[in-house]
Amino acid sequence: MVNTIVILLQIFLAFVGVYQFVISLFGIVRKKKHLRHNPKKSFAVLVAAHNEEQVVGALIENLKNLDYPKELYDIFVICDNCTDGTADIARRYGVHACERKNLHLRGKGYAIEWMLKELWAMPKQYDAVVMFDADNLVNTDFLQHMNNDLCEGHKVIQGYLDTKNPEDSWVTASYAITYWYCNRLWQLSRRNLNMANYLGGTGMCFESNLLKEMGWGATSLVEDLEFSMRCVQRGIKPVLNYEAKVYDEKPLKFKASARQRLRWMQGHFTVARHYFFPLLWASFKERSFVKFDAALYSISAYNTFIGFVVTVMLYVDNLIPADNVFTSIYYYLPWWVAGTAIALTVFMFPFVMVLEGVRSWRMYLHLFSMAVFQLSWLPITFYAFFTQNNKTWSHTQHTRVIRLEEVQSKQV
Fold first, then answer.
1. What is the count of structural domains for the chain?
2. Cα–Cα distance between 343 and 188 in angstroms, integer?
């Protein structure tokens, strides 16, 4: 009976792998858009910040110099439980410093929910809300791209997430390669297929009327994924704008990275519990492939957890000097099936780097260390499963002060 369950779990994981591989093929071809609408939409640009005095100034400078009419956007820095000079720096730059003090409801999701209530109560209203993190940098045409998509009728838009410090360490390089892979073979493929894209926590744009109607309501440790699922439930498809680039700072050290990814996986388990079965049922009831895809995406943390557990069980079973208790599905398949699956998995990462125009040979060398980074997701997700009820938000410290000009001059 147990062996049957193990085999069924392997079949399910194989299905998910083949499914995602087929979807990813539709991201190989990039169809460049040439839409351009005159600047029309007004934006409230929100910057989520908790003790970010070292990096927030560079982002504010960047945002004040966007290639978009200055009268059509205002910048609001959410100084969430800050104990440093974040608010003073924001005021010095002449933007709105919105200070929030609530030690009980901590985290970005709660801060955004509070800020939106403050925003709706202001005399001036905006067509859309854009959200960044304080450590970000953004291309100067970002709002123009958001304006284009809003004018085309889209209500939720995600920009292209890139890394502003890819060559700082093997950890940041691993993040960068992962981002390129996800942008091209997860996000762009779904945009090309007219499916729902998934929000990435920053570089996000929302139509104001939609936010007022839905409310934010995303206060888990992964508020971006949670809001994505809420949108799909309501029949709203977030879309990717591949030309609107945002650069995110990534941790230099493995320990900080593991802590950040643990928080993400804890949040992923929470979202899966709340949204998988409702979305799956709705996908069958409404014959909606978009909702089926979202349901499958919502349990990605469970897929990693199950894959880790099953792999460990099979390896341990093979190491014990006795008859095997569990059976690998590859036992029933030709030898080349497993070899092909592994080869394709390995090949896709350098292939996507070529597609994204990566020229630095050092980044290609980091493919070897990135294998360690990817494997580290397994124990992190395993630990997250048993600590998923820990809702304590942890802050990732940002210290890398880089200007947009430096990032663009060092394009890898």
1. 1
2. 23
**Parent domain of 268:** 1-29+136-392
Residue-wise pLDDT for 148-185, tens only, equals 999 999 999 999 999 999 999 999 999 999 999 999 99
With cut-offs at 50, 70 and 90, classify the pLDDT of residue 398.
low
Position 373 in a domain: yes
pTM attached to this predicted model: 0.91
Rounded to whole angstroms, how far apart are CA atoms 41 and 372? 44
Tell me how far apart the alpha carbons of residues 108 and 267 are, in angstroms, rounded to a whole number: 13
Amino acid letter for position 380? I
**Nearest residue to 378 via CA among 321, 309, 308, 315:** 308
Backbone angles phi, psi at 98, to 5 degrees: -105, 105
144, part of any domain:
yes
**Considering the domain boundaries, does residue 46 fall inside one?**
no
For residue 114, the tally of other CB atoms under 10 A from its CB is 17
Question: What is the per-residue burial (b if ≥16 Cβ within 10 Å, else e) of 9-44?
Answer: bbeebeebeeebeebbeebeeeeeeeeeeebebbbb
The label of the residue with tokens 């410290």 reads 397
Is 325 domain-assigned?
yes
Number of alpha carbons in the 13 Å side-chain half-sphere of residue 48: 24
Q: Closest Cα partner for 31 from 184, 139, 162?
A: 184
Give, in order, the Cα–Cα distances in Å from 27 to each of 11, 134, 193, 287, 380. Answer: 25, 30, 9, 24, 28
CA-based nearest residue to 179, from 371, 396, 401, 353: 353
Give residue 78's Cα distance to chain centre. Answer: 21
158 near 204, Cβ under 8 Å? yes
How many angstroms separate the CA atoms of 349 and 310, rounded? 25
